[in-house]
Write a structure and sequence with these properties.
By secondary structure, this protein is of the alpha/beta class. The protein has eleven helices and ten strands. Strands 6-5-4-7-8-9 form a six-stranded parallel β-sheet, with helices on both faces. It has a four-stranded parallel β-sheet with strand order 1-2-3-10, with helices on both faces. It is globular.
């Protein structure tokens, strides 16, 4: 028996957007579909269980033929954990919304972010926010994002480039809300670092963090749509300090609930259960998602 960890890689959009350097190759698309059907799907169906990082990914695994799925996020690094009694207390004005990662426009949903902030500007909130898109460019993405932001009248936008070490620490300190609008493969390290900095987030469900944001009240969940994201941004702009502090407190609670030692214990418990049932006939009932193994949703 074996357990398959999808590691945040199962996605409904993978074949629409993941073209890599063969962006215009129809053969590449067909080859990927065939590989999934005859190799990946067989691995998923044959596993004793599939480990999913979110309920979104668990549902995708079930549609791909998984017989048993357990849901558990990746853990937080112990050296980055904040004091459990600390949280952010107020939302500064203007509110700083931050993204950190490769400027991969489609993959990371940066086109949606820029379009949404253009709508925020059109709604009369031009001076209410500061937008930071940090990370190295990918192809001509930086030029395209900068040009589109200018067209939409987004004047308070910054592109600091690749950010490491002390610069990253200052970036978190100067941020108020983290943006995580990935279309796929979204269980990113930067997201976990932002949470360890106590930052409320706006996340897509497809990023594999939206379900946790919803369950623990870590901020806002947005569909992959500029209008939906605009509503989420305006919602964060309009909250008061009490609500902001409450969300940040939830973030710190989630971070400590998901620190790696606790996550490791949950993995071990699940593996013990699977080893105890290995070799037994599979249940004839329809496959189901086991409930997330975390215990303290807010």
């Amino acid at each position: 028996p074996y357990v398959l960890s999808a590691a945040g890689t199962l996605s409904d959009l993978t074949y629409r957007y993941r073209w890599g350097g063969k962006r215009n190759s129809r053969l590449h698309f067909v080859a990927k579909r065939a590989y999934f059907r005859f190799v990946d799907r067989a691995m998923i169906k044959g596993a004793e269980a599939v480990h999913a990082t979110s309920r979104n990914e668990a549902e995708i695994a079930l549609r791909a033929g998984a017989q048993s799925v357990f849901t558990l996020p990746f853990g937080m690094m112990s050296e980055k954990l904040p004091n459990p009694n600390w949280h952010r207390t107020r939302l500064r004005r203007p509110v700083t919304f931050t993204y950190l990662g490769r400027l991969s426009t489609i993959h990371k949903g940066l086109d949606l972010i820029v379009e949404a902030f253009g709508k925020v500007v059109a709604a009369g909130y031009r001076d209410a926010f500061r937008l930071v898109l940090a990370g190295p460019t990918e192809g001509d993405s930086l030029d395209q994002l900068r040009s589109r932001a200018q067209e939409l009248g987004i004047t308070n936008i910054q592109f600091p480039g690749a950010t490491y070490g002390e610069e990253k620490r200052l970036l978190w300190a100067e941020s108020d809300v983290f943006l995580h609008m990935c279309r796929f493969t979204g269980f990113a390290l930067a997201m976990r670092e932002a949470l360890c900095a106590g930052l409320p987030v706006i996340a897509s469900r497809e990023s594999d963090y939206g379900d946790w944001v919803d369950e623990y009240n870590l901020g806002r969940v947005s569909a992959l749509d500029p209008d939906a994201l605009t509503a989420a941004i305006l919602g964060m702009l309009r909250i008061d300090d009490t609500d902001y502090a409450s969300i940040s407190r939830n973030v710190v609670s989630y971070v400590h609930e998901t620190r790696w030692p606790r996550i490791g214990e949950r993995f071990a418990s699940e593996y013990d259960r699977l080893l105890g049932s290995a070799g037994a006939p599979r249940d004839s009932k329809a496959p189901v998602i086991r409930e997330p193994l975390l215990s303290n949703p807010v």
